[in-house]
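In the current project phase, work has continued on tokenised descriptions of protein folds. One protein thus recorded appears below exactly as we store it.

——
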Amino acid sequence: MNGYLFYSRADAAQNRIWIDTAERWGEPQANKYILGLHAHLEQLSKAKALWRRLPKNLVAPADSETSIFLSRYERHYIFFRELPSGKIGVMSILHERMDLPVRLKEDLTSIIARPR
């Protein structure tokens, strides 16, 4: 089964991306970027060959037994895992200029502390 779901922090991130883009570049560009992001997620859900496994020793909380994958869409990194249904669960979406290790650890710790 293909498809994707958002964890709450990733969902909030895509909302922030839309708002920030709309304020800076206008609503048409914000819509285009978010639609492109969703098209990218749909591609990821259908093609595991595009997945890049994140080494567990980098930022994943120690109690995480699940493999975490990443992909890049334009200026953002998308972190996700495979759900039992076969869909991907989008855990975090971070801009390339963010402190990725710190922000990712915050997002993953939040998810592990409170599962979907």
In short: The CA atoms of residues 35 and 70 lie 19 Å apart. The mean pLDDT is 87. The helical segments are 8-25, 27-46, 100-113.
